[in-house]
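Researcher: Structure for this, please.
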Amino acid sequence: MEDFLLYEKRNGVVILTMNQPQLRNVLTGNAAVGDFVEACDRIQSDPSVRVAIVTANGPVFSSGGNIQVMKEYIEQDVDPALIREEYRTGIQRLTRALFSLEVPLIAAINGPAIGAGCDLACMCDIRIASENAKFAESFVKMGLVAGDGGGWFLPRIVGMSRAAEMTFTGDALDAAQALACGLVSRVVTEDRLLDDALELAARIAANPARVVRMSKRLLREGQGASLDSLLEMSAGFQAIAHKSSDHKEAVLSLIEKRTPVFGGT
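Model: Predicted structure, token format:
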């Protein structure tokens, strides 16, 4: 089976491009899960990677689940327990891999992000959309629920009321509506999408790498931890940061009125 995901590295920024536009970049019934897990492992093992971007070739970001796989479940006598296990060992591996990435992850959403495609965008830390983008938590229209963690991600991004409306109706939001509810942080023209994502990635990558990773971890932990637990973790991370060469460089460069040069330690 052909590679689903293209992996490109530019100056510490990895670009992951979904590359099955003829299939609307579906995430099941192909190599998508394995490719994403492998790419995440590759990023985690490469300390020179500072930021990653997820985008797609073609007019669609991702249409989510493969309708042919759904059809097979209907036509074949498949034990629900086996389907449950297929989710655990399938699409949910993609969810865990993306969520566990230490480096910031930007979604550059070029077109419709439907069902699991919408949830894929929500697994990223920052979302930038082209004017052609649409977002639909459309599982209900297929008689399904979000089996990939959408029920966890979406309310944390847009709030419970908007998440409930999207989930219960399955209706799509256009790019402007997505911007208004905070699902994306900006909307750009189609021709500027990747350039804007790369410019944002460069601004992130210019900061001390270790501190960026620790800052992302604190944001993630803050979604579920108590304030006391987060404060304790923050104190530990801050102790590490205070004794880093990058912090020393930041302080000295400010005193000496020059541009800092960070080395990542």
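Researcher: Any notable elements?
Model: Residues 133 and 175 are 5 Å apart (CA to CA). The chain has twelve helices and nine strands.
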